[in-house]
Amino acid sequence: AFEELEARYLAGEAGSHAHTWSVITKAFGAVNRHELPELMQGWVNVDHRRAIAFAPGEMNAYIHATLNDARVRVYVEVVHRLSDLGAVTSHAAHNTSRHGFEAEWRQICISTIDGELINRCEIFDESDLEAALARFEELQSQTRRLENPASQLTERYWKHFADRDWDAMAGLLAEGISTDDRRTVVGA
Q: Taking the CB of residue 125, how many other CB atoms lie within 10 A of it?
């Protein structure tokens, strides 16, 4: 039933943003399989919820803790906005802990993509739809990144990384390449 609904949605109003929707639904599917979704390195994740918020950048740990402790099913209930950038969705999650405790919650999520990967996720309380929509419009209006041969090469490089195609990645690099990554937490 879900596949039929998705096919109808993509054939209609979401047809022009089918790629975006596909990437986002793959992320939900990964969580339902107890896997971490495909995420861009350095992805942005912010929790705007008042009651159960996590610190910016800590969503990976939050997802791992949830997946390790429970059976989780997440599904989209409403798509409020959809564009090439991403989507604003209301979704529900049903969680059964190892000890039999059951919980269900709803929240609003902004998910944005870059190529085949999620590059941003911002979570809002279900009562904060207007704030989520305003934030999405703000993200929409930000200048899109430069489209030139260098940015296109970088896009191909990260796609090969996501596919774990090391030979293709190596083929994009100049011989004798040198990098200097001075980040203190995560370095290349």
A: 19
- Strand-pair partners of 39: 118
Find the DSSP H helices in 2-101. 2-11, 18-32, 59-69
Cα-to-chain-centroid distance, residue 132? 15
Q: How much is the CA Rg of the chain, to the nearest whole Å?
A: 18
Give mean pLDDT, residues 90-95: 87
Phi/psi class of residue 103: alpha, beta or left (left: φ > 0; alpha: ψ in -120 to 50)? beta
DSSP β-ladder status, 39-47 and 86-97: unpaired
Alpha-carbon torsion (58, 85, 113, 173), positive or negative? negative
Terminus-to-terminus CA distance in the chain, angstroms?
Answer: 43
Render pLDDT for 7-47 as a digit per residue (tens, 0 to 9). Answer: 655 566 667 788 898 899 999 888 888 888 888 988 888 88
Q: Is 96 exposed, middle or buried (0-12, 13-18, 19+ CB in 10 A)?
A: middle
User: Which of 34, 40, 23 is CA-nearest to residue 162?
Assistant: 40
Provide the residue type at 183 as one letter.
Answer: R
CA distance 152 to 172: 11
Q: For residues 134 and 186, give the distance between their C-alpha atoms in angstroms, rounded to a whole number.
A: 32
Task: Kindly state the helix (H) or strand (E) to which residue 120 belongs, with its residue range.
Answer: strand 117-125
In the three-class reduction of DSSP (H, G, I as helix; E, B as strand; rest coil), residue 171 is classed as: helix
3-class DSSP state for residue 35? coil
